[in-house]
Amino acid sequence: MEVVLEGPSRGTFALHAEAGSYFHGFVPAAAGTRYRFRLDGEDKLYPDPASRFQPEGPHGPSQIVDPAAFAWTDHGWRGASLPGQVLYEMHIGTFTPEGTWEAAARQLAELKDAGITVVEIMPLADFAGHFGWGYDGVNLFAPTRLYGAPDDVRGFIDRAHSLGMGVLLDVVYNHFGPDGNYLDQFSTNYTTDRYKTDWGPALNYDGPNSGPVREYIAANARYWIDEFHFDGLRLDATQNIYDNSKEHMLALISRNVRQAANGRATIVVAENEPQQIRLVRPLEEGGYGFDGMWNDDFHHTARVALTGQTEAYFSDYRGTPQELISTVKHGFLYQGQHYLWQKQRRGTRTRGTPPSAFVIFLENHDQVANTGMRPWQLASPGRYRALTALLLLSPGTPMLFQGQEFASSSPFVYFADHKPELARQVHAGRKKFLAQFPSQANQAEQQRIPDPADRNVFLGCKLDFSERQRHAAAYALHRDLLRLRREDAVFRAQRPGGVDGAVLGPSAFVLRYFGEDGDDRLLLINLSADLLLAPTPEPLLAPDEEKCWKVLWNSEDPRYGGDSAAAAERPDGWRLPGESAVVMKASRV
After folding, report:
1. Known active-site residue 236
2. 271 is catalytic
3. Centroid of chain to Cα 75
């Protein structure tokens, strides 16, 4: 193995073999120098598999980066823990018109003022092409050149920390992208055909010569925390991280994140479709030591409640009041029952899991792309406001997707810039995937599915921040609810067992949040027509002695586009306006 330097430092330097098929050597070079590797005397040169930067993309030379050159100002930052946070998923390339770290950093103060506390960045590992979601990364240590230089990433994080905001990074440790991955030139042991993923070969975490593969990924997890000061990671599709080792790779990753933080608080979150609660159990209890998991069950039942659509993977949900109550109280709805869509059991028991461990959402990158439109565009305004209240006041950890807070009309569809033949395959694969939805399976709809390789598709997903003013009612709704969550001690508490609920009608329910010394809250939600409850034999509606319920917040406030109607207890019973939500506080008579 040889290192070939480019530019003024041009030269070729031999590396020396050592045990374990590694090579080492000292080469005179400086930050900014570009280089590649030559293997076994071949003419073709390859980028560094652990390159810190690929200024010309994954097929070009690697560039030396001095990770200590950036002047950090976050010396007093102590990190972030998951309880109490409000997450915000962001794709740097479409979050601003410029699509850069610097432009995104200029928006952080606005996000902070709106009530966001932690930003979650979609994957950064460099990938081929000029635009993409980032899930086809091939240079795991190189932040993609598309949004700026590595120090621009650091500048964004440093700015967030100065505002008291955390930053998480979405990482992909289940597969490598289809274009630009040269790892197999260095060793055929990085991937394995013993397991399958939907996106290509699985990583070899437990087969022959898997030790260096495990260290490669563990080092990557440490790298983002240590050199970039990220506050944690979100791991993509962990069900496709296959490992029968004594220490599962997921446990190894979470342990390395904590060690790299050197005393700072960190957050590790998983996407896990089978809903295996072991991920969020402590390491010392045989778990994997994660802090949270995405809760698809909350999204799916809320989506059905919003739209009435039960296609494809929504088919095992009814969007009923009982489902909504149960996901607030228990996290996952499926905890081992048969899941008809998959023809197998799904989920595990969540007993003893803190509410903050369940990351809940009405939007994320996948769901907006799969269903074609933002939820607010598919539901009535009143129903959408009511379920937004449920999202932002539930004891789980709420997450917004970029632009959701001001009802962005920008779509977010799948985009990926690939070479022509691969692009055709990707487009065909996207059509096949979306055909699981009968409404998107007919020929006319299939022809309308956007071409992921069309640059205009990518550009059309960029946010328009003028909608903060044009959609002022939606923006006020989210800001006020996040303020209520932040400032009200009862909603802020996220206490285990701190919420109970009851069905009040076919589309109506109540949640009661228990505070200290009877300082309780009610969240009443009615997703259908006006409802009169008479009589009201439901104990959760009863105030404590010498107290009564007073309205604290109302989704039908005219500031949000409502008509001022609010639920109220009257001599003839409780009246719940249609498609509304109201928060009530127990007060002295």
Report:
1. yes
2. yes
3. 27
